[in-house]
Sequence to fold (831 residues):
Amino acid sequence: MSEEEQAYEPKIVAFLCKWCSSAGSDLAGVSRIQYPANATPITVPCSGSISPLYILSAFNKGADGVLLSGCHIGDCHYIEGNYLARRKIYLIKELLEMVGVEPDRFRMSWVSAAEGAKYAQVVKDFVADLKPLGPQNKLKADRT
Amino acid sequence: MEKILDKQRLDDWIAALTDWEAFAPAVEDGVWAFRPVVGAARLDHPNTKQPPKGFAFPQREVFFSFEQIKGEAPRLTQKLPDSKHRVVFGVRPCDARGTVRMDRVFADHVDDVYYQSRRNNMAYVGLACNKPPSAHCFCLSVGGSPVSSDGLDVLMTDLGDRYFLAAITETGKSLMTTAGDLLKMPAAADRKQAASVHAEAVAQPQRAINNPDGAPARLKASFKSPLWEELAQACIGCGICTFLCPTCHCFDINDEVTGSAPLKGNRVRTWDNCQFPDFTMHTSGHNPRPTVGARLRQRVCHKFQYFHENFGMHQCTGCGRCISDCPVGIDIVHVVNKVTEHAG
Amino acid sequence: MIDVQSIRDAARDLLAKGEVRAVIGYRRGSRGMLAEPVTITDPEQADELVWDATCFHNLALYLVEDRKALAHAQRTPNLPIAIVAKGCDARAIVVLMQEHYFKREDVYIIGVSCEGGGVLVEYKLARLLNGAQALSAVIDGAELVVTTLAGEVRLPASEVMADRCLECREPFPKEHNVVFGEDQTSRQLVAPFTALARFEALSEADRWAYWCRQFERCIRCFACRSVCPMCYCDECVVDSITFPVAPETTAEEKANRIRWIERSAVRSENITYHMTRAMHLAGRCIDCGECERVCPVNIPLRLLNNKMEREAREHFGYEPGASIGGPSLVASFRDDDPGQFIR
Fold:
């Protein structure tokens, strides 16, 4: 990796469901697990509540990567929310790829409140996968 | 100043205009548009999908940027357009007359520095219409003509293997002078042919507004006519007619915030559209033009009555785009004829 | 071949007998051979109705407009409204009923089959006629019968038809009160999603370059949204200019309204608008193709919606506009929905 590439720190916007993934990210913190600080967390009530606009808006505002994380299937606090997320996010992921956005920029995970280590690993993997892609400028707004 | 230009030498002329950024019609995915000249320029277009109004009046114009500095008043930095000279080839007479109308709006009663600074750096080289480019042309009805030079700097006429050039303004003369000996003196036969091409062009059949001179008064008398709702019945409230029009110029101004701490952004003007349902929506919730009929009436009367009252000329130049591109066939010629026929 | 008189008679009867309050159909407009939408309320007007290969419009849009006008006037209709509907239009009506926009008994569907044909594309016809002007164009079986000044010309319909018709899976309005024309659903002219498959064969870089070019041309005229029957939101969420206010809207609501994209018609804002619209139509778009037809700058919008439709069919077993009682795509799920992409 060139010096420039090494210096580049991708900005990740992470939509985390309050009941599982957000709690999981808290557990990673409380457990003092070291992982890259590239993800800005946004807590949402449920992964099923995530509108495609949140994802597109994050990219529009310059996010290099967008992560969605929710409860494991069967464990959703609202019973069915994550089933709906699974369907909707599949569609937006396909649409993003079809338009030509690199598939590695958008990902989804199931992280429970007990999976602090998993959350840290998800972010670590995401940062590693984003670095070679460089800054995202396909969907980013040119605010000049 | 009148000259002859061999068609093969058009690209040489454009290349000689080193102080100018040149644009000409080009087709991409079936859509004709004015694009920067790359390689060979062509002038075999019908008319471009969009008129050249976007050169002096772009869809997006940044007025100024603002930045909140701690403890100080917000800093405003004006963003004037660049001073590049731009020349557009292949402008049809209807669109050139449209430019004249835009000029009246942005220079007569107001001093719009953004429009004017762009406009003052524009040159329009027109191409006369030997045949109507569209099945819906009606320039003759609204005081125009397929060979009008109003609003142009140079008028080109296609004589088959060469163009007949006429300089209309000082800028046009200087554009032609830059061509040097690429341009030849016209022979008597050239002038004769140009005149006959023009006469034939004007004789081509077109659609027609039946009573253009009577339109302002008759439209004024028809404000309450039930015909407006009837004629607008199929309107879907999109923005095609207005955005494609050479003379429509309504705009919106918004702040595009780019940072919140410190607060910064740009104040931006964008095109707006009286056919959008909430164009006249008030903050109270009241909308004085709540129906498609009211909005159609607004657009048609602006073109054929209000503008006439303010500036002494019809705003519509008969390009026909709103007719050919309306998704549901709303036809301004039909509308004006029907309403004025039943006026009073 | 469908005799247009039967459509006219049906409309006249319904109005004369007071069974419907209006009929939404097509009539000849002022632009040569092109049809235009019309709503008639008088039985005498029934003779204006036409049916031919220029009946492009999805008239279900006008059912939505009618419903909105009634809501605004706070009126409940005492009679249903009738509508002339092609296969695609009828599926749009089903989606609207599925979403409880109106009830089945509120609409009387005068179904018309496209049989072996469909709607034409003007530039394809112009090319085949070599400059001759068409005065009318009617579908007859698998042929298009065109009348020009020089006489009648028969062309294979498939050479002038819109892509959306060539790929159409169901050129027959399954949901109807009365229907004219034969059900030739088995006629499949071109495999569904052919245009989409061709596009998807491009590399990621080529796909992106392609959409860049398209979205840079977009002028945000919103014709695509305005013509779509399923885009019925008073306030379009992605475009906050259409924030409807009422006397009771508070100052705070007005000040805090979210602006997802700017009004500037630049690539980034245009892409967000179109992708959001495609997502909001997932499972609801029935591919009438009107969005693509009306776009003044020829953006191939069907590709985005077809992508959603094909994914819905292949992975969720979902067919838009299939049944009035069916669930919506994004408010339902199956245990075997794909999830391998989730870490």
The two ends of chain B are 49 Å apart (CA to CA). Chain B is about 30% helix and 20% strand. Chain B touches chain C through 44 residues (CB under 8 Å).
